[in-house]
Design a protein that fits this description.
Elements: E1 3-7, H1 12-21, E2 25-29, H2 40-49, E3 55-60, H3 65-74, E4 79-82, H4 88-91, E5 98-104, H5 111-116, E6 122-127, E7 152-155, H6 163-170, E8 174-177, E9 182-184, E10 187-188, H7 190-202
Parallel strand pairs: 1-2, 1-8, 2-3, 3-4, 4-5, 5-6, 6-7, 7-8
Antiparallel strand pairs: 9-10
Helix pairs in contact: 1-2, 1-7
Amino acid sequence: MVRIKICGITNAEDARAAAAAGADAVGLVFYRGSPRALDAVRARKILAALPPFVTRVGLFVNAEAAEVASTLQQCPLDVLQFHGDESPSLCREFGRPYIKVLRVTAAQDLRPAVDAYHDAQGLLLDCAAPGVWGGSGRSFDWWRLPDVGKPLILAGGLHAENVAEAIAIARPYAVDVSSGVELSPGRKDHDKMARFVARVRGT
């Protein structure tokens, strides 16, 4: 079964709706340059609204180690997602499971990243959009993802109308959606989330 993460959650109502729709994980953005950015106070309220067995993911972009550590002290995150140019040593510094994001445009050799981030829980493939660190709504040319001994997560421009095709082509471990289920940046459309989850489960 393909897992589902809904990213860019900014309020408790949307978090509860994502969980009710069947999302396996939700993502909170701790990157000030994003329209979906949160501080630790707001993030704690959202995390407290989630039911058990929903994975809580915190997204960071080139953050200083002290900033990540401070966020972890205040927010009960299960997994860290590093979306920038973070080194392997920084990613593993916090003793938490982590996902490393690769920004791509088409098929490429993933082995160097697998070797460099050998202890990552998984690698997330997102569209390389100039000046944007995710949530751009752009997709890349999907290809059959290789078996690299590590879960591969597909992101970038996914929505209910194309996710079944993306899964059929790429065969990912999981899919990650943000702008494809929104009314506006940071505000989720509950019907879109439900349709997205239903399409994924239908594959």
